[in-house]
Sequence to fold (299 residues):
Amino acid sequence: MSSDESWLVTGINGCIGAWVGLTLAKEDKRVVGLDRSDRNYRLRLICTPEQLARIGVVNGDVADLDLLERTLDEHAITHVVHLAALQVPFCRADPTGGAHVNVVGTAAVFEAAQRHGLSTSLSYASSAAVYDADGLINAASLYGVYKIATEGIARIFWQDNGVASLGLRPLVVYGPGRDQGMTAGPTQAIVAAVAGEPYNIAFGGRTQLQYTADVARAFIAAARMPADGATVFNLGGPDIAMSEVVSTIEQLVPGAKITFDDVHLPFPPRLPEPVFPMNVTPFAIGMSETVEILRRNLQ
Fold:
């Protein structure tokens, strides 16, 4: 790990982006985020004022190639984590806008990295949404289709231009700041429980839950992998029954009124190999830390 690393994180005001920013700030790295939103409430949720002060943010469109090039050059960027995306509900509501951010934005990030001469692996977010319920690459949503395109863009930029990359496919990410998207229900249930409100999680069955801090560390590790090829990995972690999620919330927040629908997600409950090597926070600890952070911020 080099002391002269300088990082660009697209989508830094999103959940995983905020955790990547926090993790790099804890390492005393130079980090600048690019986000079209100036609402940094997720960063403020998890960062101390000192940590927040270490993170610079450029507001703008991830598909703005000129802005990307200027940002990469002005900050002498050595590592890129590309997380900017619109999730399933937003892509469904605005297919053109979803394609602009998820597909055009990804192409712009890769082209800017090529022009900048990025010599490290470009780390980017794909998704379990590329799969259908049988574990085949056969997306059931526009978001999943866009993520398949993202992986294709990465492959062709390596093939044609030598831009190395490593994509990661999370399944259900949970933890502080995970407040929107198709699979945000477990975290939204914790928020409701801490606030003393009832909540119904809109899906059930078993699924892999991946703690935000672990996911952030995985994306950072991916950007530090040898720059060779265009590889995609699934993220691992325990597959947990939704009944266990609910009972864990009830143990951590006595009196919680959480229910769930017995409806399975349109993805496999456990993602197939290859799985990216990463440390996994035990589920009970991740849930406890989430409750602690949310309680602290509701005071």
About this structure: The two ends are 38 Å apart (CA to CA).
